[in-house]
Queue: 4 jobs
Job 1
Amino acid sequence: MTLARALRAWTAPMAQVHRPRDGIRGLVAKRRFQRGDLLMDVPLRYCYLPHASRDPRRLRRWNRSALFPEAQFWLRRLSPDAPDEGVSLTASVSTEDKKVITLTLSPVEASVAVSAALRYFWRKVVLLKNREGVGRPPLGPPNFHPADLYLHALPIEKYLSYGLEGPYFSDVEEEANVHSNIEQIAWNLRDCILSCAPQEEYAFYDAHPSELDATLLAAIYVLRARLLRMAAVFGDDQASDRVTSVIAPIVDFLNHASVGHNCAACVSIPRRAVVVRAVRDIGVGEELTLDYRGRGQLRRGATQNSWGKSGAEEAEESENWWESRYLFSAKEA
């Protein structure tokens, strides 16, 4: 995988293929794996932890990821303690039965979505050539090969080609309301982008308003769909484990399976990496899948801290929990 090399990540022999039954891309094993085998090791410096802390300064400290260089600017701009006027990342809508549905993006989710959307906008919509070295300032995000490789792996173009509104304006009212919330947040982000844009960049945004809106909306959907919940392992003491959410490139190539998944992932603080291991024996050609909700990785009674809610609140206990936890001990993670 070219992206794996760019991120200095390690992966076991596997291949990305399209599933015959539905055409969805996934990863399959190229050799037989045994339970506990290491499948992926992705450096944490290229990942994002959207809910690592409620404190804005600590949240920025935990999210100094090198994946999107421009994300640091947007994270500072979208944080609640930003010196400029704040950007609302919360939207609410009232239903016919007088319920209120509210959706909130974390500043990290929003900054990564904006970074991906603008990189796609300038690379795929405007199609401007690089102007570095010609005496004029470059337009759009800076050139960064790992970010462009990850952008290429995101299905933003497919989301745009299929259309986002159709599936959500259905008989399921709640889905339509969630879409309305995401749309409102996307508009707020667009206004923030326009207010921060230099005059020359603003002219391009103004010339392609519908493309900018659609790209922002698609980026939010794509990034939220790739938000993984997993245990953060700080050491051998199980009581220190926490549940957190992660945006982890390469790991998010694994498709979600709530039942029958054959992989488990954790944030290994000692290794400073997101680690994926096999939870059972896997045959050659078998698809590698992961439970995106990370259920069953924490024991009941774990305490709560800024990394997220405790295992008792967020994770379902499985009968063989201790076996899964053993896969991610501090020494073996």
Job 2
Amino acid sequence: MRLLLTTPPIVFWSLVILSLPSCSTQHQNPALQPSSPDSSVITQQTYYYNCPGSPDIPVSIKDDVAWIFLPGKTINLPHVRSGSGAKYSDGINTFWSKGEEAYFQTETGKIPNCRNNRRLAIWEHAKLTGVDFRAVGNEPGWMLELRPYYINYMGDYGETRQTFVRPEPESDREERQTVFRVDNGSDRMTIILKGKECFDTMSGEKYETTVIIRQYGNRLQGCGKALH
């Protein structure tokens, strides 16, 4: 357990996010859709490339096919042989990565010197695998995902994992908050989403929603945002 506690938060979440169950995806392409709410998304890898002088480019790889989300369109490229790194190409468009670096060739030209942003890739992966809302908190590290039919919670740096059927929420417009009261027969939890800006206690990043979790007399607070 000591290894988990000393692992940097961004690296930790990038390792555990792939193990969560999924039930849908924002994109309607069946190649990116898990087969059932309980199916694993381990085989799907997501990257989020920052490219100097160009818009950011998310990439999702599954079953030897790379889905490239370019501004205004999405293309899929088959895996091809390369001397080094991982290369995907249809003869016109190319995505070639090595480590955290990547190069793109499209109909409009070359996009070199792109670098994967691990933190944003985690959020993009959640979005592409059907998460409606995602929240995180620190000390101890925890993560919450609201999917169309399920709610996944991971706490204590990954030691605690709980899944609940997503119930109808209790909404209060005057208080600008939404409450989910969940019970899976073994665990109970109250989740409160407040329409109040929130700043991550480690990164300082600003989020649109303050999230409070109450369970067994404990209170956790973190930040989250809608992904769809």
Job 3
Amino acid sequence: NFGEKVAYYFAFMHFYNKALLPLALLGIAMQILHSAISTTAYMRVLPFWGVGVSVIWSFVFLKAWDRENATMQFAWNAKLHVKQIEYPNPSFHGQDVENPLTGEMTKKQTRSWRRGPIYVLGAMFMLLQTAIMLVLVALWVSIYEMLKDKYKAGGLFTTQWFAILAEGIVFGLFVDVIQWNFVVTNMARLFTTWENYPTEEQHERALIRKLFLMDFLNYYTWFFSLAFVYVVPTLGDALTNVFNTA
């Protein structure tokens, strides 16, 4: 018996994979459609596909999961609303005080306002990560243009193709492995530990929120910067020059 969390995880993954099946079929249809229409028409269809997935499918999925969740709770516990067992956080530390009801010694919880400086520190770290990503994007764009200029012959399996592929691999390894696994994830865990939550559930929720925000910034900053910053006339060149000389 591995407990409620493991059973809940497999139940969610089973439901999630079933919900992805319609998207997979529609994705195959989109790929077939791509071969039947022009690239311009296909690119015009893609925004509707994105809206359908992010707005319609995601909303329906969340509502359906709520119903499935209620069904599981009723089947497992014979009631719709149950409170999850709160396990104490082993890293929690606080002042020992006597519980007036039980007479037992318990640790006094940290007031939420005292976590304010840690929240500010976490926000500053996220801004720093965003700045680092902007610098990396500027560096990546500069190297990309340099490789295209140095190796004129383009096409599949050419020297230019291999050079740009190697650049992308190095960039991906740094962003995904070094920066994310060794820096961002560990810093998120450190900030969450400093926030000093009394239960494992509160600790995990706070950690998930941080990882989600940091993951979003870590992976999408360079997409947004390429799409909305570096393409702006004069601004993109100015930022690239500043970051390259920094």
Job 4
Amino acid sequence: MIFIITGIDTNPRVWTFWINIGLVLTFVGRFIKQPKENHKRRKFIVYGLIFVLIAIAAPALAKNSQYNHDGSSDSFDDIAFDFISVSEGKNKSGKFHVSYFDTIAKPPLWTVCYGHTRTAKARQYKTEAQCRDLLIEEIAEYRSGLHTHYFTAQTKRDRLPVFRDVAFTSLAYNVGIRAAGRSTATRRLNAGNITGACNAITWWNKAGGRVVRGLVRRRSKERQYCLRG
């Protein structure tokens, strides 16, 4: 409602919490001004209101604790790894990852683990643990690129809960930091249009000028994460 009226994007958990505080203080003030008869009854009602306030605020505060003001989270790495590794073809066998020559890439190049190309070469073997470390390191680089160069301060503060952060990081990992950062999805997110931003992620579903089923699935999942917040 505030965004519709003023065009300013805010964190609803913050103003909802303070509205509840104001309501409780209003009721407390009214009871204090009442005659001293029924003092125990008023005291019971005040304690009840405080309990209700705590019950309302606790879930919001718990959710808010999942990420801090710069959009980071203790669980970000785990969630991002699980999401991106599956999208990149997670090795479920538990065996070694073997490098392969990716002919779809332009230009074609050696690839190993979960889309890693920087140090990949022919006949290269890596363990699952090594591949996880490589992916976590690269995820941090792509995420940092978006946060540093493309997301506004308000976006990083108010619009990037962990799952939305993962969605945009996954997009950048797939299409590149510059492409994701200059996309309509990012511009809409910076403008406070969350739904529009999440929908725009799905536009990146083509390779070589044609729609690719795997990209459609990946973008759909990213959109779900984005809307989940």
